[in-house]
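Sequence, C-alpha cells quoted for completeness.
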Amino acid sequence: MTHYQTIVPSQLARTLTTHTLHLKTWLAVSLLTLTALLGGIGGTVAARWLTPATTASAPPPPTPAADRPAATETLPVTGLSSVVKATLPAVVNISTTKATRGQLDPGLGLPFFPDIFGPLPQPRQANSLGSGVVVSPDGYLLTNHHVVDGASDIKVTFADGRSLKAKLVGTDPKTDIAVLKVDEKNLPAIPLGDSNQLEVGDFVLAIGNPFDLGQTVTFGIVSALGRGNLGIETYEDFIQTDAAINPGNSGGALVNLQGKLIGINTAIIARGAQGNQGIGFAVPINMARLVMEQLISKGRVVRGYLGVTLQDLNEALAKQFGVTGNRGVVITDVAADSPASRAGLQPGDVILEFNGQPVRDLRTLRLTVAQTPPGTTVQLRILRNKTPRDITAKLDELPEDQPLGALPGGGEDDRPNAPAGSALPGVTVGELSPAVRSRLNLKSGVLVRAVQPGSAAAEAGLQRDDIILQVNQQPVSSVAAFDAAVRQSQGEVLLRIFRGGTNLFLVVPRDRN
C-alpha cells in the first residue's frame, strides 16, 4: 500500500517558517559573537534589533470583571459537561416498524410457476429511526408525529442500553408532536422550560440520534424565533437554531444551559444536502406542552375556532382599509353559523387586537385562536370602513378540515360571446354560469378569463380562473356591473376574489404610466 502525504497551505507555511527560524538562529549567533567583540554600543544596537516588535507596545491590561456588564448566560470554563450529564440520560433513540405493501418477484421465483397474474402484493417491514425525550419519571415521552406515524411497533432505547416497548398515547400532525408511554418508573426526565423566555442569541444544545450514530450533542444559539410560513406544519412557531440537527435528530431535545427542555427538534433546511446546513427548527416546548396535556387527558387536541378566513396586509391593502402602523389582518370570508358570523364580523373587517393584544400577522392570530379553549369569550378590536369597533365573540371548537371547493376549469372557456376585455386594463372577464355559481355557493362574481402578462393586474397577483366577487367592497354579479364599478374607482381598485376555495383581497392600479 502506498501512502501519500498532502501538504496543505498551512503545512507549507509551517515548513517555510521552520527554515526561516533556522536561518534567524544562525544570524543571531553570529551577531551575538560580533556584539561580544564590539561591546558597549554595538551590543545595545544588536539587542534592540533582535527584540521582537510585538514587545514594543504591550496590550492594555484586561478590564476587571466587575467593570464589565454581566451576561445573562455564561459558558462554564470547563465546558458543558454538567448540562449534558443531567440531560443526556433522558434523551432516547426511537425505532419503529411499519407494515408496507411490497411485491413478489414474477413467478414467485419459481421457473415452473409463470407470472400469469402479475406481481402479487406482499407485506414488508420498514424500519425508521428518530429520537425522543422523557418528560416525566413515570414514562411519558415527547417526540415528532412523523417519527411514529403509521408505526405498528415502537421501541425506545435509553442511554444505559435498556430497550422498552412504547405505546402511542396520541399524535397531532398539525404541530408534528406525538406522546409515547413506557411502563417504567423513576426514569430520568428533563424539566420543561419556558420557551416564551427565549431570546435570539441564547445558547442551546441539541441532543438526539443523528444518522443512527447513537446519542449525540451539538451546540449553538437561538438563531431566530417565531419562524412560520415554511409549509412544514399547519401551526408553525418554530425556534430556529444553528446547533447541528441532522436526520435522526427528529423528536430530540433542544435544551438551554440550565438543562431545561425548551424545544423538540423537528426539521432542517438542507437545500439538497444530506445533513445540517446550520438551519434547524424546533417546536417550542410551550406549544408541545399544550398538545401533550390534551393528548394525555383527552386523547386528542381541542382548538378554538372563530370561523374567519384571513389575509395579511401589505402596504397597498393597509392604505385601502385605512390601517396605520404595522399591525392587523383583514377578514376575507366569514363561515356560516360560526362564532364570527354570530358576532357580526364581515369580510373587509380588519382585526387589530385580540383580547387586548395587538395582532401582528395572520400566523400569530391563528395560533392564538387555536390555543384559546373553546367556549372562551374573546374581545376583538376591529376596523370597519376605517372606523374602530369592539366586537365580542364566543369561540367554538375547531371542526374537522373540510375539502376546498374547486375552481371552474378550462371547460368554462368554450362559452360563446366571451368579451374581448374589461374596464380594468389587461384583464378579460366573463359571466359566471349559474351551474358554477350554485356548485361553489356564490351569490355574485365574474370569472377572470385572461390576465395580460406584465399588466398591473398581473403584477398585483390576479390570475386566470379567479372569480371576482367584489369591487371596492361592492358585490358584482355581471360583467356590466364589474365594468361600471371599476370605472367609478379613483386610481386603485380593491378586488375581493375567490381562488382555490378561499377568498382574498388584491389592490390593482387602474391607470399606470
Observations:
- DSSP finds eleven helices and 27 strands in the chain.
- The two ends are 75 Å apart (CA to CA).
- Residues 1-71, 103-117, 402-419 have pLDDT under 50 and may be disordered.
- The longest strand covers residues 121-134.
